[in-house]
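Bench log. Compound arrived from synthesis this morning; before running ITC I wanted a structural hypothesis for how zinc ion sits in the protein. Inputs:
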Amino acid sequence: MANEVRDREVLRAVVQAQVERTPALDVHTHIYSSAFGPLLLRGPEELLTYHYLQAETNRVLAEHSPAAFMALPKAEQARLVWRTLFVERSPLSEAGRGVITALHRLGVASVRDYAAALARFAGLSAGEHVDLVLRAANVGGVVMTNDPLNPAERAVWEQGGARDARFRAALRIDPILVDWPAAAPRLFELGYAVERDLPEASYPEIARFLRDWAARMQPAYLAASLPPTFAMPSDTACGRILTRAVLPVCRELALPFAMMIGVKKRIMPELGDGGDGVGRADLDAVEHLCRSYPANLFLLTVLARENQHQAVVLARKFKNLHLFGCWWFNNNPSIVEEITRERIEMLGTSFTPQHSDARVLDQLVYKWAHARRVIAAVLVEKYSLLIDEGWYPAEEEITRDVALLMGGEFERFLAQH
Ligand code: FIX
Ligand code: ZN
């Protein structure tokens, strides 16, 4: 083939350049377009009060209890995080190093100067900030996390503001599946004739709620974070709502259902979002769903490292299952490398290696910079092994493969319906 790559140094340069220059589709984030106003978190204070860094600071903080630390005003808490993790200690953790990567690549003159970081972003409008970050991160589009039961967010959707095409929605339905007794009255207040004890008539009303919000949001997928105890088949409220309302609506609207499995909510409640833990899940539930509902498309990311290998085996068996990202406690280079390697070894390019899970706009820069480094390294290794055996990748093949991994395969999977 033309442009065959035979030399390993050339291979490294071609792969690294292609991974860097290929815009990423970030299939799971918690950031918002600027239309959502204060829901879009951005800037150094938000970066420093990220729940990962709150938890890391809490570990070594002498002068405050967890609750007192978490109750501090944001600016004061951010300064304490900076002092604790960036001055008194070196930011060697992934979340700490991420702040430095983001500040450096977003143009902060001295990444040791917190005042300079604050000054760099002062006066930047949300729209300018979004453009700056998406360009610096080379992210072409993101999928948000959208909760119609969040009053602040619901108000924005109901106002029908202009949409930013770079920000696609994801209809998040955790409360409906994992806390129906609390969700039922909230749906009822919104005009859906549902009841806590789930009589037959409630399922069409839950389906109507999902259809109404899917029509409003035009989501890429429906999603839920599920506990390690998630089990299927199951006659629980979760099992019944999933099979009798959620999956039928997903089929009807040609939308995947994304399962994010393994969170043990609030094992350290004082830390808020930073207080969530991890538990090994029973992925037989995923096997059951993929086999029993072949007309449904499923997206999956799992939180326990111990679940990653079985998830890859399941994806190899079921073409209606697509794996995405190295989620949360897995989003550390040592584990991202392990997971990406085993996925390529069993799935080739039919998966999505990474999502950022960014909660703060500026995190896109570091989460993608750090991920690209690992993805490129694993690809160089795998192509090199092919070169050893006389199979020489063409540059256009490398371009094609990287485009699949950076979002192309995700789009192909969604278009299957
Ligand atoms: O459920 C989720 O979407 C999780 O990603 C979040 O709850 C979590 O706090 C997070 O942002 C992890 O990175
Ligand atoms: Zn998330």
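What the model suggests: Residues 32 and 38 are 9 Å apart (CA to CA). The longest strand covers residues 221-226.
ITC booked for Thursday regardless.
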